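Q: Sequence in, structure out?
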Amino acid sequence: MMASEHLSRRQILAGAAEIAGVAAVAQSAVRPAAAAAVPALPPGVTPFQIDIPKERISRILARVRDVEWPDAPATGDAWAYGTSFTVMKDLVDYWATKYDWSARQARLNTLPQFKVRIDDYDIHFVHVKGSGPNPQPIIFTHGWPSTFAEHAKVVELLAHPEKHGGKVEDAFSVVVPSLPGFGFSSKPKQPIGARTVAPLWNKLMTDVLGYKNYIAQGGDIGFGVSREIGYESPNCIAVHLTHLLPSGDPSITPEDKLAESTRAKWTQVEGAYQHIQGTKPLTISYAMSDSPVGHAAWILEKWHAWSDLKNDDVWSAHTRDEMLDTIMLYVITNTYSTAAWYYAAGRTEGAGPKRGKLEKPTGFAVYPGHLRANGMWPRSFAERNYNLVYWSEPAAGGHFPSEEQPEIFAADIRAFNQMLRSRKI
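A: Exactly. Output:
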């Protein structure tokens, strides 16, 4: 096993500054597709643009404006019983009076998007070929409650680093698909999970896009998908993860058992969503499909709980427009139910084969907001169960790091790949 490389927070921040150049890049919108080198389309791949009928948007906004509010308990902690009533009313007011879907749709459409049929699914994906003669292919897998748009800010930073204060030799060819059942990918007929998605992604990268090797990156659902790719795909040369759960691996050390205990307490207090989505997702789907505001509250509560916030303010990590983009990508496609099904995948996919140590070179980035909100198993656990070659502790960011801290996230991905190159992996 290779010795792992640890990056300090100072090193990560220095790398981020080098890549970003200026702080304004962090807050910039999705960058124009015209700046990207879009490859000739492989067979079966068709260009895709988001184009939601105005009647659909009008109907959603009418439901938003006609919301019937629940009673909220009097408490000193506005989030103690769920989504803050004050924050929710503020977001709904913005949604009804200021949010401009047509403008946000146009910004999302600056990302080069495509669709392709793979096995039983129509897969929606973003694809930007990187600068230079040898960009490193990488596929990002989002989680729940997220979408492909979570990675929108990092596509250009990674594909064309030389335009943002970096070096062309650090470029990536970036692929960001929508999981089946999310956004604009087709919906499964029953719950699916990592064992179904991993071979789809491998076919997308190899058979469709023609890449001989690639890195798999993910957190949340993307943790399981990327891990599965690492086990199953010879074309995957390395795995980068922002999540670390045991996935059947035993807790041995006191550190492991502390993490297990902490996670059990977290599940008791914060894990109700997992239980209902893993047991009776259809029941709650009737409410989510019928109420845009209810669906928004369900999503907002998690983005508040899991992000790296200042003074418990969700808008310190996300803009209202960004939050509503994510919410709308669920509401306009009516994909709450099929997205939630991932929590019930064990009932249809089964337990799967018993896994040993993942021998594929693996890196972890431990973001402080994610660690505080969700907990993670310790580095010693990763060293026993993975071929750990990289471990970083970025200074800022939570469960959604590519949206919360795009420069820091891009710097970390780039540092991981630089380490792989230095070791000729």
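The two ends are 13 Å apart (CA to CA).
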